[in-house]
Amino acid sequence: MFEDTAEKDMYAILLQRKGYENAYAEAFSKNSNEMLSDDRLDEKDKQALIKAKQNGTKFASAFDGDINVADGQAYITEQMCENLLRLRGALTGEVKKAFDLLRSGEKYSWQEKADAYKLIYDKVNIVTTKYTAYGFRDHTLNGEDCSDVAVAYYNKYSLAPLFACMATGNMHNIY
Q1: pLDDT score of 163 more than 90
Q2: CA distance 9 to 3
Q3: How far is the C-alpha of 69 from the C-alpha of 132, rounded, in Å?
Q4: Where are the domains of the chain?
Q5: Do 49 and 36 meet the contact criterion of CB atoms below 8 Å apart?
Q6: Which of 22, 73, 116, 121 lies 20 to 30 Å from 103, alpha-carbon distance?
Q7: How does strand 131-141 pair with strand 71-77?
Q8: Taking a C-beta distance cutoff of 8 angstroms, is the pair 7, 53 a contact?
Q9: What is the three-state SS of 109-169?
């Protein structure tokens, strides 16, 4: 799948650069041999298609094995985390105390902060219902319709609250 998409994307880009309209629709209606035999492409373009397919194959191989691409994780603010817990009735006194510790400007040990964070993280993610998104979406590529076929999707994800006291390095600018 990825190797085909990479090759088709490259084909569409090459056609767009040459001034052809509906390049993506054309690209996704052709197979590899049809694209490579297109007289509108020069040898350099055809080499780019071959390279795109090789890169797509290499990229796709990273997903072999136990990786589920429908799983994801999102960082949420401490306020959103607290609101979600409150809505679910999971904002207990113990959890509120953990929030207060992590929001405090006081110097707590790293172990105290780690324990407080673990308590909050467990309350957010260990629930009987999982955070999910599922249904049908349009078959699009880069915002353009590719077909009239509806594509089914099912994604699940976990939420990781990010507190200001933990946002360091590249994440420092979030707060």
Answers
A1: no
A2: 10
A3: 14
A4: 2-61, 71-174
A5: yes
A6: 73
A7: unpaired
A8: yes
A9: CHHHHHHHHHHHHHHHHCCCCCEEEEEEEEEEECCEEEEEEEEEEEEEEEEEEECCCCCCH
Lookup: tokens for 105: 């400007």
Cβ within 8 Å of residue 65, ≥6 positions away: none
Nearest-angstrom CA–CA distance, 23 and 4: 15
Which phi and psi (to 5°) does residue 100 adopt? -60, -40
Of the candidates 135, 122, 133, 131, which has an alpha carbon nearest to the alpha carbon of residue 158? 131
**Closest listed residue to residue 45, CA positions, set 17, 81, 71:** 17
Contacts of 16 (CB under 8 A, 6+ apart): 23
* Look-up of token digits 């099912």: 154
Contact 108/136 with Cβ under 8 angstroms?
no
Tens of pLDDT, residue by residue over 59-101, are 777 666 665 555 677 778 888 888 888 887 888 888 888 888 7
Sheet holding 144-162, edge to edge: 71-77, 144-162, 131-141
Q: How far apart are CA 78 and CA 162, in angstroms?
A: 6
